[in-house]
C-alpha cells in the first residue's frame, strides 16, 4: 500500500464557503431549491447549497441583457484586459480551486493540479483573453454587378450566452465557454452541474473580485428546472452546453422555439487503434492510464481499444503492467491515479456494465483486484473483452474505469470498427514510426479530434468537439470564438 497524507491534512476537508449567487455584480443569497453536495471519496456531505429561484434566473438574464451593449462596444483590448485580470485572480486562488475540485469531483490531486486548474487558467483562459484582440474583419474587395461596390465581412457578438457545464471538469468546461464568449463581446450566465456546484460558487466570488462591469458575468446554480428556464429564456441568445447526449438533445429542443443557436459538447465512445507492427510494450501503460484518467469520467476517454489480431495476446500481457500501476482510492494520496465515481447511482451504473457484460459472455481480461476503501463510490478498473461490437458496453458511454478491447484483421476492418458508433468525439491511432500510415488512418476516422501516437495535451488554439451524437459546433481556438459571433456583410457603392 502507498503512504497516505496525514488525516490532519487541512485541505482534505476544505470546501469554499461561498453559497451566494453572483447576479449583476452582487453576491445574492439563493432563494430556490436546496440540496446537499457530497465528497464522492468519503460519502460525507460537504455542503448544502441553494439554487436560483425563477425570479433570480430572470434577474441574472436581465442583468446580462442590460450589460450587453456596453460590453460589446468595448474595444477588444479592453475586454482582453478584463479577462486577463480574471485569470490573475484565478491564478492567485489556485490553492483554493484545487482542493475544491478534489473534494467535490474526487479527481486525484496528482492529476488535478495541472489538468483541472493550471491548464484551464494559464493556457485556455489566457488564450481567450488574447483572442479578444483579434480583428476578424474580412475585406472582400470589389464586385461589379450591377454597379461597382466594395464589401467587408465583420463579426459581432451574439448577445447573452447561457453556459451550462457537466460535473467532471467544473473549471475547464466553464472557461472553454465563458473565455470565448466574453472575448467575443457576449455577456454570460453560468450554470454548473448541481452535483459539483461548489467550485463554480467560488468562481462567482472570484469573478466579483475581478471587477467586471455589473451584469457582464453572472453565476447561478440549480437543477434541471433552472437549466430549462435558462435555455428557453427569451432574453438568452445562445446556449452552450457540456454534458450527456440525452440532456443535449433536450436542450436543443428547449432552445428551438426561440431559434437560439446551440453549441453542444457531448459524450463519446472513442477508439484507440493499435496498428500492426507497433511495440505494444511502449504504449500499453499510456493507453490504459489514459482511458482510466479521472476515473474514466472524461468525454474523450479512449475506452474502445482496437488492436490488430497479431498483437492481441502481447497487448494483454503488456497491459498487466499498466493495471499494476493503477492505484484506486484516496484522491489526496499522491500515488492515487483513479478516484471515485461521482455518486452511488453512477457507481452502480458502471458496475452494471461490467456485470452485464460478464453475464452476456464477456470476459474480464484485466482488472484491479485490490480491496476498495470502505467509504467512497469507487470502482476497480476493468478491461472487458470477448464482446460483439454491438454489445452495450462497446457502444455506450460508460463514463467509468471500464474499457473494451476488440481485435481487428486489417486496416479497413479497424476503420470500420472505429466508425461503428453513433458518437465521434475523439480517436487515437498508434502507428509507431509509420506516421504516413497513421495520418491516412486518422483521415478516415469520423471524429472531431484524432491523435496520432497519443497526440499531446488539449491545445487552446485547436478546435474541440464532435461528430454525430458527440455534439454540435466546436469549442476552443478560433472555431470556439465563432460560436459566439454573428457574421455581418457590409456592402457600399463606389
Ligand atoms: P448531464 O447531461 O447529466 O448534465 C449536465 C448538465 O445539464 C447539468 O448541469 C444538469 O443540471 C443540466 N441539465 C439537466 N437537464 C437539463 C435540462 N432539461 N435543461 C437544461 N439543463 C439541464 O451530464 P454530466 O453527467 O454532468 O456530465 C457527463 C457527460 O458530459 C458525459 O456524457 C460526458 O461525455 C459529457 N462531457 C462532454 C465534454 C465535451 O467537451 N464533449 C466534456 C465533459 C463532459
Could you please describe the fold and organization of this structure?
With 494 residues, this protein is of the alpha/beta class. 38% of the residues lie in helices and 20% in strands. The chain has 15 helices and 20 strands. Helix 3 (94-105) packs across helix 4 (109-131). The structure holds nicotinamide-adenine-dinucleotide (NAD). Nicotinamide-adenine-dinucleotide binds at residues 164, 166-169, 173, 193-194, 223-224, 227-228, 231, 242-244, 247, 250-251, 254, 265-268, 299, 397, 399, 425, 471.
The value of Rg in angstroms is 23 Å
The unique ligands bound to this protein are: nicotinamide-adenine-dinucleotide
The total count of strands amounts to 20
Instruction: Give helix % range.
Output: 25-40%
Query: Alpha-carbon distance between the termini?
Result: 79 Å
Sequence of strands across the biggest β-sheet: 14-15-16-13-12-17-18
Write a brief caption for the model.
This protein has helices at 54-73, 76-92, 94-105, 109-131, 170-184, 198-209, 224-231, 245-255, 280-291, 312-324, 344-359, 392-395, 411-419, 435-444, 477-482, and strands spanning 21-23, 26-28, 34-38, 45-50, 138-143, 149-157, 160-164, 187-191, 217-219, 238-242, 261-265, 271-274, 304-308, 363-367, 382-385, 402-408, 426-430, 449-452, 471-472, 485-493. By secondary structure, the chain is α/β, with parallel strands linked by helices. Nicotinamide-adenine-dinucleotide binds next to helix 7 and helix 8.
Amino acid at each position: 500500500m502507498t503512504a497516505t497524507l496525514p488525516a490532519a491534512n487541512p485541505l482534505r476537508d476544505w470546501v469554499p464557503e461561498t453559497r451566494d449567487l453572483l447576479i449583476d455584480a452582487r453576491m445574492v443569497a439563493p432563494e430556490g431549491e436546496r440540496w446537499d453536495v457530497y465528497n464522492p471519496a468519503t460519502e460525507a456531505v460537504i455542503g448544502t447549497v441553494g439554487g436560483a429561484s425563477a425570479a433570480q434566473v430572470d434577474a441574472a438574464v436581465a442583468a446580462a441583457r442590460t450589460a450587453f451593449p456596453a460590453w460589446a462596444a468595448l474595444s477588444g483590448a479592453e475586454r482582453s484586459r478584463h479577462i486577463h485580470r480574471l485569470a490573475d485572480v484565478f491564478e492567485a486562488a489556485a490553492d483554493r480551486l484545487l482542493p475544491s475540485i478534489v473534494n467535490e469531483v474526487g479527481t486525484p490531486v496528482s492529476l488535478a493540479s495541472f489538468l483541472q486548474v493550471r491548464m484551464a487558467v494559464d493556457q485556455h483562459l489566457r488564450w481567450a483573453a488574447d483572442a479578444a484582440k483579434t480583428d476578424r474583419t474580412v475585406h472582400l474587395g470589389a464586385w461589379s454587378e450591377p454597379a461597382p461596390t466594395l464589401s467587408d465581412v465583420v463579426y459581432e457578438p451574439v448577445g447573452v450566452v447561457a453556459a451550462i457545464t457537466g460535473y467532471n471538469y467544473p473549471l475547464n468546461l466553464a472557461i472553454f465557454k465563458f473565455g470565448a464568449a466574453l472575448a467575443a463581446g457576449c455577456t454570460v450566465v453560468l450554470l454548473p452541474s448541481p452535483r459539483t456546484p461548489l467550485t463554480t460558487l467560488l468562481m462567482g466570488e472570484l469573478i466579483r473580485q475581478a471587477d467586471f462591469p455589473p451584469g457582464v458575468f453572472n453565476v447561478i446554480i440549480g437543477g434541471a428546472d433552472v437549466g430549462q428556464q435558462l435555455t428557453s429564456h427569451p432574453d438568452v441568445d445562445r446556449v452552450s452546453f457540456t454534458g450527456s447526449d440525452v440532456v443535449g438533445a433536450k436542450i436543443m429542443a428547449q432552445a428551438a422555439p426561440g431559434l437560439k443557436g446551440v453549441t453542444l459538447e457531448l459524450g463519446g465512445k472513442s477508439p484507440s487503434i493499435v496498428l500492426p507492427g507497433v511495440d505494444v510494450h511502449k504504449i500499453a501503460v499510456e493507453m490504459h492510464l489514459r482511458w482510466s484518467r479521472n476515473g474514466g469520467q472524461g468525454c474523450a476517454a479512449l475506452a474502445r481499444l482496437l488492436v490488430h489480431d497479431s498483437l492481441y495476446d502481447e497487448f494483454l500481457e503488456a497491459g498487466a503492467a499498466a493495471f499494476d500501476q493503477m492505484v484506486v482510492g484516496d484522491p489526496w494520496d499522491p500515488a492515487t491515479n483513479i478516484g471515485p465515481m461521482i455518486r452511488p447511482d453512477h457507481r452502480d451504473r458502471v458496475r452494471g456494465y461490467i456485470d452485464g457484460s460478464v453475464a452476456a459472455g464477456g470476459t474480464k481480461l484485466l482488472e484491479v483486484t485490490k480491496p476498495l476503501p470502505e467509504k467512497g463510490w469507487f470502482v476497480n478498473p476493468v478491461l472487458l473483452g470477448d464482446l460483439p461490437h454491438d454489445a452495450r458496453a462497446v457502444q455506450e458511454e460508460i463514463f467509468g474505469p471500464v474499457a473494451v478491447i476488440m481485435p481487428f484483421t486489417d486496416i479497413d476492418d479497424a476503420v470500420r470498427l472505429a466508425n461503428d458508433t453513433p458518437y465521434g468525439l475523439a480517436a487515437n491511432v498508434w502507428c509507431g514510426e509509420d506516421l504516413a500510415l497513421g495520418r491516412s488512418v486518422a483521415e478516415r476516422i469520423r471524429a472531431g479530434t484524432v491523435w496520432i501516437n497519443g497526440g499531446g495535451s488539449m491545445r487552446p488554439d485547436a478546435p474541440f468537439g464532435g461528430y454525430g451524437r458527440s455534439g454540435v459546433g466546436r469549442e476552443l481556438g478560433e472555431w470556439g470564438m465563432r460560436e459566439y459571433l454573428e457574421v455581418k456583410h457590409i456592402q457600399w457603392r463606389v
